Amino acid sequence: MKKLVSTLLSVLLLGTMLLGCSSKAEVVTETSKAPADGTASTTAADASAATEPTVIKYVSWMTNGEDIPFVEAFMSENPDIIVEYEAIDGTNYDKLLSVRLMTDDAPDVFLIQWAQYAKYAQENYLMDVTEQPSMALLQANSGLANAFTMDSKQYGFPINTNGGPLPIYYNKVYFDKLGITPPTTLEEFYSVCEKIKADGVDPLVFGAQDKWPIEMFFRYHQYTNLLSEHPQYANDLYKGTMLPSEFYKSEFEMGEDLFNKGYISKASLTLTWPQSVPYFIEGKAAMLPQGPWVPSMPEFAELDPSVFQLAAFTSPATPAADGKIYAMGEVDRSIVVSSTTKNKEAALRFFNWFTDKTNLAKYLSAQSLTTVLDLEYTINPIIADHIKNISSDKYQLIWSQDVQLTPAFMTDAMFNGFQNLLAGSNAKAELERLDSEFDKTKDAIIVLK
């Protein structure tokens, strides 16, 4: 299937970050062994020196091992390079990675979240990759290329992009049992939640102990009803023409309302993202709002179709006055090379291999990810209708921001705010806290244009 949206004009400079597919605080390391030389015409010492591989470090937040097969494929094709793969906590990724970058422990190649890009580039942590051969794919998309350009240079490559309302996953067998048709409006969505609740099942579950899964439901701002009037909302917040409590008001009030009505499982606060998946599969909750990667998860691979059939619909949202649903798009994972790597040739070889059209298409297809790059890859059939839906004229996706909000505002304010709602706080208190936290981080905001 061709790219996610065929007519996008520009791509986001959005001050949010996608926190990947997991946030378990664990480390996963994958290392290959040096190949044997097998050459009889040299001494053992010469053979060892000739075949000694270059070791590079690659870091991401894919703590479920999603990237390990990809790393192994690269090493299979490049036996002279060992890639030591490490996955670190996604929720605290910026904090943990920043410490690494300031020391001699900086990885050679790593993934970053979008809110980190401009900051890391300005702090000279990222290598200029403008002239690398794989960058031609990015540069063919003027909007994306412009988003990644700083001082006429580009310092990274967008692995995948998301945008618009999330897919909400459900068990078709259960919906059929209750006679439920997937909702297309917010009113229908609330009615579906009420019917499920009456059946003794939690309508929605989030792995909210990890914070980002519930915030992600609101991340694209389709519930603010203000994007049509404030497409450059981050700039308006920065200039003070609009307060965060005004812009995010509808989102926090909706979160509070869903929880108070009993539509969000109380277990959400104690479940991590990985734990929320079996909770959903076991039928304790009927719906799981989450990103496009869910259908590729092994937990859904061998379920009895007479009991569980994974399906998805697009999160309903109320249209603006012109009939369109306005929402943000975002870059999720970007791959970059450390400016201080001591293994430049090997690091760049891995970077270019990762972002090669063929390899990138395999990566996206394997993990059920999406992109706006002009790339042929496979969209999982479970989310095919969702992708078609948000690519239609019904949705107006906004893909650029002139100002990049800080990671601290997003993690300390937005993430904590929605988690606090589940812990008994209220929208009014959390919106007031948003204004306060925004003021604290305002000096660190990066103006891009």
Topology record:
Blueprint: E1 28-30, H1 44-51, E2 54-60, H2 68-77, E3 81-87, H3 93-101, E4 109-113, H4 114-122, H5 135-139, H6 142-147, E5 149-150, E6 153-154, E7 157-158, E8 161-163, E9 167-171, H7 172-178, H8 186-198, E10 202-204, H9 212-218, H10 233-239, H11 244-247, H12 249-260, H13 273-281, E11 285-289, E12 310-314, E13 325-331, E14 333-337, H14 344-354, H15 357-366, H16 381-390, E15 395-398, E16 403-404, H17 407-422, H18 427-441, E17 446-447
Parallel strand pairs: 2-3, 2-4, 10-11, 13-15
Antiparallel strand pairs: 1-3, 4-14, 5-6, 7-14, 8-13, 9-11, 9-12, 16-17
Helix pairs in contact: 12-17, 12-18, 17-18
Q: Do you know the CATH architecture of the largest domain?
A: 3-Layer(aba) Sandwich
Helix content: 25-40%
Instruction: Note poorly predicted spans.
Output: 1-49
Highest-level CATH class of the largest domain: Alpha Beta
